Amino acid sequence: MFAQRLLPAVLLATAFLLLPSCGDMPSTLPSAIGGVDEVIFVEDPRFSNDSLYGRVDERLRAQYGNFIHNEPTFDVLNLDLEAFSKTLTNHRNILLVGILDRESDYNDQIKRMIGQSGQEQVRGGGLFTVQRKNVWAAGQTVHVLVASDYDALDKGLDKAMNDITANIQKAEFAKIRRNMYASGQEEALSRELAEEQNIVLKIPAYYKKHPSSNGAFMWYRRSTVDLTASIMVYSHPYTRELESSPAYAIFVRDSLGRQYERSQIEGAYMTTEKLVRPLQDTVDLNGHFAIRTQSLWRLEHDFMGGPFINYLVYDKANNRIIHLDAYVYAPDITQKRRLVRELEAVLTTFGVPGEGS
Questions:
Q1: What are the C-alpha distances in Å from 305 to residues 166, 267, 271?
Q2: 4-179 in CATH: which number?
Q3: CB 95 within 8 A of CB 43
Q4: Would you list the domain boundaries of the chain?
Q5: Alpha-carbon distance 75 to 123, whole Å?
Q6: With contact defined as beta carbons under 8 Å apart, do 166 and 184 qualify?
Q7: Same fold, 4-179 and 184-347
Q8: Which whole number is the average pLDDT over 326-344?
Q9: Which residue of 39, 146, 166, 222 has the lowest C-beta tally within 10 Å?
Q10: Statement: 184-347 belongs to CATH 3.40.1010.20
């Protein structure tokens, strides 16, 4: 266990702990349950109507993406300790937030989670986050946010919740990727992409190469009864600084959309939705500088549209720009978050042959 300063100005501390399962737990645990991006928030009844818990809920339910319909980052179920203990102790993601300033059943549960040494640190003053793995179920993580007093929780809550939600999203993303490749990978398509474009990308099972694919542009598509998912991969030599800008990422995907994605209506083509501001940031994509863009697409002169995720990657070693774009059309599926997360799980398998060898 170690303590890390959370807010030095107010002398708060954060400890990130990874503790073993309780000694009295059975040797064989049931598998954890729960849908992807689901979180159980177990509440202390004395804070259920407090603004602090309101801030916890706001962070868990913060809008994901920029969809037309507001979608939360997580699907959250709020339970008191009694209801949780009777029904959902084997859920995959559990959050407890409390203050060790008095005796209660809720605080007894927190004490069991953080152990004696953790209790001593909390009593010394500050705020701590603790992760416990496989407490009641295999594949489970219990997140505990605990403070010595109300002021400490108030001052450190927002940053601590940012850390907790980031950890949950990272773990859930790993599960999403496992699910995406549960049926395997289209090895022939991935091998062809590596050989012809010098790009590593794990194409999931059931995706087919679109007939319009050619040379530096490869297009893959999967259609089911309720959605059509597409992946475009395009590369070209890097010639000027503009080509590594957020505006250029939109320009290229619109150019590809105009050229390739059409409908039955004459003159229709795919473009980025101009009424929604794209969410863009710079990221490290497996060792490469990249601009990540998430927004909405639509067909000009038609009524089709949906979300997309795009990575503009600067491949410095090969002096080129690579565009990785994935989008989905699923008019009968109201919640789009899962679809975008699944497509991003594919794009982030990106690499260049020979890296790391």
A1: 29, 16, 9
A2: 3.40.50
A3: no
A4: 4-179, 184-347
A5: 33
A6: no
A7: no
A8: 95
A9: 166
A10: no
Q: Which residue carries 């959370």 as its tokens?
A: 6
The per-residue pLDDT for range 78-98, each reduced to its tens digit, is 999 999 999 999 999 999 999
Percent of the chain with pLDDT over 70: 92
Reading the block at residue 171, the tokens are 């773990």
